[in-house]
Prior knowledge:
Order of helices and strands: EEEEEEEHEEEHHEEHHHH
Bound molecules: asparagine, zinc ion, calcium ion
Helix content: 25-40%
CATH topology of the largest domain: Elastase, domain 1
CATH architecture of the largest domain: Roll
CATH class of the largest domain: Alpha Beta
Strand content: 15-25%
Radius of gyration: 19 Å
Amino acid sequence: xxxxxxxxxxxxxxxxxxxxxxxxxxxxxxxxxxxxxxxxxxxxxxxxxxxxxxxxxxxxxxxxxxxxxxxxxxxxxxxxxxxxxxxxxxxxxxxxxxxxxxxxxxxxxxxxxxxxxxxxxxxxxxxxxxxxxxxxxxxxxxxxxxxxxxxxxxxxxxxxxxxxxxxxxxxxxxxxxxxxxxxxxxxxxxxxxxxxxxxxxxxxxxxxxxxxxxxxxxxxxxxxxxxxxxxxxxxxxxxxxxxxxxxxxxxxxxxxxxxxxxxxxxxxxxxxxxxxxxxxxxxxxxxxxxxxxxxxxxxxxxx
Length: 303
Ligand code: ASN
Ligand code: ZN
Ligand code: CA
Ligand code: CA
């Protein structure tokens, strides 16, 4: 065959088959998707259980990515494509920077590493230890969360500490939910394989996972950059209440406009309320939608 784009498929972390856009070069197939209208590509590499980034490509001799160590990579590239499609189709945003830059992921980061992150340049996924997590790229909402950190960095620029940091975290969780559109849980597909029905966080019930859901329970701490993964429960609950009242489409438009037009690096929770209200007014006027947003933030004690 000739070198160039190729179609194939593979099995993800949960064992499900999915089609893949590959690239053939020198007798090897790459997780390297050239089919999007980007300046770059969507590609996935491996850290081979080390911490050197971005690491080499993970390649296969044929178009069927069916080996065990390929599963995390299959999902990383597949879901990165899904999240790319969401931002492009819904908002016309071409990749995280709006300029079609390459979406790079690295899987098999570290050993038994129970986390995933955006490092300012790419997404990085651990394999988990098999008890707390299985490979984290197996969850579309985790990928939506991490890639939204990249969007936030290039738009609102929310500083990653205290209330602005909790808003940064919350935007990633809210878009994780808006992108998948199926539940209000984050990480349920890859969290505690031995326990069913749980998740890393819940937008509808933040308290279930130790987060506050009202300003009166805000946690003052010096750990986790001022509790950014804890206090995000408050704006997360407002996000749930918004989505529950207005649905995915209107809520997506309101949140995206708030994130890209109104929020600034030092925004506090009250600024997020104001940003969502202004976005709702811009898009829908001062009616049902505006009142729903106001009610959502009222209910979590943010004025
Ligand atoms: N998974 C975490 C997050 O995206 C990593 C971190 O603490 N930044 O929030
Ligand atoms: Zn995060
Ligand atoms: Ca979910
Ligand atoms: Ca579980």
